[in-house]
Amino acid sequence: MWLVVASVPLIPAVLMVSACYRLKLSALCHRAVTWALRLVRRRVCVKSNHKFVFSQCTHGNAESVLETFDLYAETHGSVCIGPQIGEALDEVLRRVRPSRVLELGTHCGYSSVRVLRLLPPAGKLITVELDPITADFGEEVILVAGFKHSQFQVLSCSSAEAISSLHPLLKSEDDTESSVGLNLVLMDHDPQHYLPDLWALEREDLLCPSGCSVLLINRSHRAHRETLDHIRMRSDCFCIRNELQFMTELFYQKEGRRAC
Ligand SMILES: C[S@@+](CC[C@H](N)C(=O)[O-])C[C@H]1O[C@@H](n2cnc3c(N)ncnc32)[C@H](O)[C@@H]1O
Question: Is the pLDDT of residue 79 over 70?
Answer without folding.
Answer: yes
